[in-house]
Amino acid sequence: MKKIIVTCITCLLVLSASAQGRLGIQAGATFTDLKLSDASMDKDMFDSKTGFLAGITYDLKLVGPLSLNTGLFYVQRSVKEDGSATGDPSSTDRFSSIELPANLKFTFPLPVVNPFVIAGPYLDCGVSAKAGGKKLDYGDDLNRFNYGLAFGAGVDLFKRIRVMYQYDLGLSDMTTSVADAIKTKPRGSRISAAILF
User: Fold this and answer.
1) Neighbours of 8 (CB within 10 A)
2) Sign (positive/negative) of CA torsion 104, 108, 109, 112?
3) Residue of 183, 187, 185 whose CA lies nearest to 38
4) How many Cβ atoms from other residues are within 10 Å of residue 2's Cβ?
5) How far is CA 133 from CA 93, 94, 179, 182, in A?
6) Contacts with 3 (C-beta within 8 Å, 6 or more apart), sequence order
7) How far is CA 63 from CA 12, 30, 107, 130, in A?
8) Rounded distance, CA 119 to CA 65, Å?
9) 116: closest CA among 84, 152, 147, 91?
10) Residue 62: how many CB atoms within 10 A of its CB?
11) pLDDT at residue 14, as a whole number
């Protein structure tokens, strides 16, 4: 895992040396919901809680106003689990992962302020998870790798500061339990800011 992360960061740094790419440091807050296949359980069991994200963002210019927006992020998604249905106390569940996005970015070239929209897939690699006050194991309880689609919009100010909103649509089932027919998919939004170099 560490070797993969170091390799990805090294590649981003090498690419940033090109005039066609821009590197930045990005951080922000996440707001997560867990989408269950049994819709009647969504609001009863889980409430959104604030998590966080931090990492490196990279824009690779393609053609005209189009660019590839990628990077490497540490993302923590948090929800509050209501245990009243099972007689357990309420708890905060946290799912942490390393995220690799691959967004197509369209920028509107205006003076000073450059609005943009993004859309594309992302891949999550789980690094730690805790639910109901207990640590969860990948393979036994959770799938380590998950994927989804991201949609967002934002602005680049003076070509140095970025503020953006993003919605994450998880498409894969986080859980591995065969006996439990309920599929769990993370959905949510994030607000973040970046400093570009």
Assistant:
1) 16
2) negative
3) 183
4) 6
5) 8, 10, 22, 21
6) none
7) 19, 31, 11, 43
8) 14
9) 152
10) 12
11) 56
* Tokens 């992020």 found at: 73
Q: Which residue type does 176 have?
A: T
User: What is the structure's pLDDT at 10?
Assistant: 58
- pLDDT tens, 41-90? 555 677 888 999 999 999 999 999 999 999 999 999 998 877 665 566 67
Give yes or no for residue 144 having a pLDDT over 70: yes
User: How long a stretch of residues is the chain?
Assistant: 197
Could you tell me the pLDDT band of residue 179, with boundaries at 50, 70 and 90?
A: very low
Cα–Cα distance for residue pair 34/170, rounded to 1 Å: 9
